[in-house]
Write a structure and sequence with these properties.
Layout: E1 15-22, H1 24-29, H2 40-46, E2 67-77, H3 90-100, E3 104-107, H4 110-117, E4 128-134, E5 137-141, H5 156-171
Parallel strand pairs: 1-2, 1-3, 3-5
Antiparallel strand pairs: 4-5
């Protein structure tokens, strides 16, 4: 069995975006956040983390910006409601984070954060910085850019992350 989408990870990353799983469209097109209704790429550009609007098939270009991509479920695709708890491989993600040691892992939904932490849907989660770290890696939760979660959309946490990213990029 092969991964739906390959991790985009390397040493020296400032931010790694982590979702739950690739959408069916992303899996078919072999590109992260490829559903045209997903706001991920537009948001990265809007908050100035990318100088131009990247296409989903250009996701590998993020490495030059010290940005990575991964998902908790590497061998499943589809909407969150169709995923099973067994689809999430927290040990694999932990191993990858320990290996590459990004500064920040930004979970692109509360669902992804809950899956990483083994929390239930009833457990309250706020956007922004989260308690705890994995070595030097800190955790940040963002509103989902998926059209399915548009009711909870808020650009402010994305702007906050972009400001942190910019500060850290200017230090190095």
């Amino acid at each position: 069995m092969s991964e739906v989408l390959p991790d985009l990870l390397d040493h020296g990353l400032v931010v790694v975006f982590c979702g739950t799983a690739a959408s069916d469209i992303s899996a078919r097109l072999d590109a992260y956040y490829a559903n045209p209704t997903n706001a991920f790429w537009r948001t990265l550009h809007t908050v100035k983390m990318t100088a131009r609007l990247l296409r989903p098939d250009e996701f590998r270009d993020l490495l030059a910006l010290r940005i990575g991509l991964t998902d908790l479920a590497k061998f499943a695709s589809g909407a969150d409601r169709g995923l099973k708890s067994g689809d999430f491989n927290r040990a694999r993600l932990r191993e990858s984070l320990c290996r590459y040691q990004p500064q920040i892992v930004a979970f692109t939904s509360k669902t992804a954060w809950r899956a990483w932490r083994g929390l239930s849907a009833r457990d309250a989660v706020n956007y922004g910085w989260q308690e705890g770290a994995l070595g030097a890696t800190r955790f940040f939760v963002l509103p989902s850019p998926s059209a399915a979660a548009r009711g909870a959309w808020d650009l402010k946490p994305w702007r906050s992350l972009a400001e942190i990213y910019e500060r850290r990029m200017s230090v190095d």
